[in-house]
Write a structure and sequence with these properties.
Elements (H helix, E strand, L loop, with lengths): L6 E5 L2 E5 L27 H6 L20 E2 L2 E5 L9 E7 L4 E7 L3 E4 L4 E2 L3 E6 L6 E7 L2 E3 L6 E7 L1 E8 L5 E9 L6 E7 L12 E4 L3 E9 L2 E8 L4 E10 L4 E10 L3 E9 L3 E9 L5 E11 L3 E10 L2 E9 L5 E8 L5 E6 L2 E2 L2 E2 L2 E9 L2 E11 L5 E10 L6 E6 L7 H4 L3 E9 L4 E10 L4 E11 L9 E2 L1 H5 L4 E8 L4 E7 L4 E7 L5 E8 L7 E7 L1
Parallel strand pairs: 4-12
Antiparallel strand pairs: 1-2, 3-8, 4-7, 5-6, 5-9, 9-11, 10-12, 13-14, 13-42, 14-15, 16-17, 17-18, 18-19, 20-21, 21-22, 22-23, 24-25, 25-26, 26-27, 28-29, 30-31, 31-32, 32-33, 34-35, 35-36, 36-37, 38-39, 39-40, 40-41
Length: 540
C-alpha cells in the first residue's frame, strides 16, 4: 500500500485527508490537523476496505494466510462408573467426518473431559470406544455422534460385570471352588471368566464368600474344617497377591463364613465354630493386604449351646451380625450383636413358640440399606406337639420387636413336612434393587429329604415393607426340584439370582422382574461329569 503523509488524494470520488489518522465523512476526529470535508462515493469498493471487519483498517482481523479464522467448538465427554484398577485407561477416538481427521483421548477416572483439538463448528463427528479395563461393561449411552457446536456432551457409562463364586463337592467327595465372570449386558449373557481356585484341603463344605470393596474382590473359603483362607482379585478376576490365612482353630469345625467391607480400610469376617467350647467369632483384616488386624474376637461362646448360620453387615462404622443359637435343652433363638473393634454388644434376641415347641429360627441374612438394617430369616412352624407343618420367611427392619411375615410355605413341590416330620427352612438372600425396592430370594430346604427343592424371589417395598408378587423358579425354569445355594445381586437395570443345581450338575443365572415373571435363564457352568453335590453360590 502506498503511504500518504499530509496530502490530499482522490480515490474513486473519495477525498481523504491523512495526517496521522483517517477522517471519514461521518466521523470527526479532533486529533487530526488541517481536516477538510470529504466526499464519499457509496458505490466505491474502498469503503469496504476501510470499514471492513476483515483484513484491513481499524476493524481489521488479519487471520493466517490473510483469511478469517473459522469458529471452533469443543467436543466434551463425561465418564461415570469406571474402575481403572489395572492401569488401563479408557481410550476414545474422535473422527471429524467432514475432513476425516482423528484424535485420541484417554480417560483415567470418572469426570468431565474434552478432546484436545476443537472442531470447526458445524462439522459432523463420531466417537468410538476403544480399550478399557476388563471385568466391566462400558458404552456411550448418549451423543456418540453429532455436530460440533450443536450436540451435547457424550456420556459414557460403565458398570461392573457379575462375579459368581461357587463351591461344592463332587460325587466322589472332592471339594471344588470356582470363580466366574459374567457379562450381563450381552444377550445372551457371556461367561468371561471360569477360574478354578485351589481349595487347599478337604473341608466338609467349601462355603465361599465374595465381597467387593470398590477396587478388589475378596474371596473367602474354608480350606479345611479348621481353616479360613482368603484371596484378592481385581475387577477382571485376576489374582492380586497370594492366598492368605484368616483363621485356624485347633480341634474346631467351622460353620458358615460371612464378611463385610468397611471403607475405613478393612473387612470383618464372622463365623461360628463347634468345639469343646462353641462360639461365634470375628476377625478383622486389612482390605488391601489381608493382614490380620488384632486377634480373633469371641462374640458369644458356650460349652452347651450351639451356634450356626452367621451373617454380617456394616452400618456406618458399626458391624452387625446375627446367628442361630440352640441350647442343650432344645430352646431356639436368633441372636443379633454389634461390634467395631472390641467386645460385641447384644442388640436383639428373637424367639418363637408353638404350644410347647420352641421354633427354629435360622439362616439370618442381613442387609444395610441407607440408615436401615434389614434382617431376614426362616422360622420353622409346628403344630405345637413337635410336628413340623410349615416354614415362614420373616423380616425385621432395624431389629423391630415384632418381625413381619413375608411368606409361608406348607408343601412346596413335594416337600411334605407334616407326613415326613422333617424340618423345613427358607434360606434367604437379599439385595437393594432400586431406590424403592429390595429383592429377597430364598431356597426352601427340606431337612427330612436332605434337599433344597425351590428357589423363589419376593420384591419388598422399602418404605412400607410390603411384599410383592413372588416368582418360583425350580420346576418351571429348570425342570428339577434339586436347586440349592442361591444368591442375589442387582445392577442398574436388572437383578440376578445365581443358583446351583445338583440334579442338573450346573450353575444357573436367573433374571427376574418385579411382576412375578422371569426375564431369562442362562447356564453359567455346564454339566459336571463328576457331579455337583450341595452347591453354594455367592453373586456380587
Amino acid at each position: 500500500m502506498k503511504r500518504f503523509l499530509n496530502s490530499s488524494k482522490v480515490i474513486n470520488g473519495f477525498y481523504l485527508l491523512v495526517h496521522g489518522c483517517f477522517l471519514f465523512s461521518f466521523l470527526l476526529v479532533q486529533g487530526c490537523n488541517n481536516a477538510k470535508p470529504v466526499s464519499i462515493d457509496a458505490s466505491s469498493s474502498a469503503i469496504g476496505a476501510l470499514l471492513s471487519d476483515g483484513d484491513f483498517g481499524i476493524f481489521g482481523n488479519l487471520g493466517a494466510g490473510g483469511t478469517s479464522s473459522a469458529a471452533t467448538s469443543p467436543i466434551n465427554v463425561s465418564l461415570s462408573g469406571y474402575v481403572n484398577v489395572t492401569a488401563n485407561d479408557l481410550s476414545l477416538t474422535l473422527t471429524d467426518s467432514t475432513d476425516s481427521t482423528t484424535q485420541p483421548l484417554a480417560l483415567t477416572a470418572d469426570g468431565s473431559y474434552s478432546f484436545s483439538t476443537e472442531l470447526t463448528s458445524g462439522d459432523s463427528y463420531s466417537i468410538s470406544l476403544d480399550s478399557y479395563t476388563q471385568g466391566q461393561s462400558c458404552s456411550i449411552s448418549a451423543n456418540a455422534s453429532g455436530t460440533a457446536g450443536t450436540t451435547g456432551t457424550a456420556t459414557i457409562v460403565c458398570e461392573r460385570q457379575l462375579a459368581i463364586a461357587a463351591g461344592w463337592k463332587t460325587s466322589s467327595g472332592t471339594p471344588v471352588l470356582k470363580l466366574f465372570g459374567v457379562n450381563h449386558s450381552a444377550s445372551p449373557y457371556i461367561v468371561t471368566k471360569n477360574l478354578s481356585v485351589t481349595v487347599g484341603g478337604s473341608p466338609g463344605s467349601v462355603d465361599p464368600e465374595l465381597v467387593w470393596n470398590g477396587t478388589n474382590y475378596l474371596l473367602i473359603w474354608k480350606s479345611a474344617d479348621t481353616t479360613i483362607k482368603g484371596q484378592f482379585y481385581n475387577i477382571s478376576l485376576t489374582a492380586v497377591g497370594s492366598t492368605f490365612t484368616i483363621y485356624t482353630g485347633a480341634g474346631v469345625t467351622i460353620g458358615k463364613v460371612s464378611a463385610a467391607y468397611s471403607p475405613s480400610g478393612e473387612f470383618a469376617i464372622v463365623w461360628t465354630e463347634a468345639a469343646s467350647t462353641r462360639a461365634a467369632k470375628y476377625q478383622r483384616i486389612n482390605s488391601s493386604t489381608g493382614a490380620l488386624i488384632g486377634t480373633p474376637t469371641t462374640i458369644a461362646s458356650s460349652t452347651s449351646n450351639t451356634y450356626t448360620s452367621a451373617d454380617v453387615t456394616l452400618s456406618g462404622s458399626t458391624y452387625y451380625t446375627a446367628f442361630r443359637q440352640r441350647t442343650s435343652g432344645g430352646v431356639n433363638s436368633l441372636l443379633a450383636y454389634s461390634f467395631s473393634t472390641g467386645a460385641a454388644t447384644s442388640v436383639k434376641t428373637y424367639t418363637a413358640t408353638s404350644g410347647t415347641d420352641s421354633l427354629a429360627l435360622d439362616y439370618p441374612s442381613l442387609l444395610t440399606q441407607g440408615s436401615n438394617i434389614w434382617l431376614f430369616y426362616s422360622q420353622t412352624g409346628t403344630d405345637g406337639s413337635g410336628n413340623v407343618n410349615d416354614s415362614t420367611l420373616k423380616s425385621s427392619k432395624n431389629f423391630q420387636t415384632t418381625p413381619a411375615t413375608m411368606r409361608t410355605e406348607t408343601n412346596p413341590y413335594g416337600c411334605d413336612p407334616v407326613n415326613s416330620s422333617g424340618d423345613q427352612y427358607m434360606v434367604p438372600s437379599a439385595t437393594i434393587a432400586n431406590s424403592t425396592n429390595l429383592l429377597v430370594s430364598y431356597d426352601l430346604f427340606c431337612a427330612d429329604m436332605g434337599i433344597y427343592n425351590e428357589v423363589s424371589n419376593l420384591p419388598v417395598t422399602i418404605s412400607s415393607g410390603a411384599v410383592g408378587t413372588p416368582t418360583d423358579y425350580s420346576v418351571t425354569e429348570l425342570g428339577t426340584s434339586r436347586t440349592m445355594g442361591s444368591s442375589l445381586a442387582c445392577r442398574t437395570t436388572a437383578c440376578f439370582i445365581s443358583v446351583g443345581d445338583e440334579s442338573s450338575d450346573a450353575i444357573y443365572l436367573f433374571d427376574p422382574d418385579f411382576g412375578g415373571n422371569i426375564g431369562g435363564t442362562s447356564t453359567i457352568y455346564p454339566n459336571d461329569g463328576n457331579g455337583i453335590e450341595s452347591p453354594i453360590t455367592v453373586i456380587k
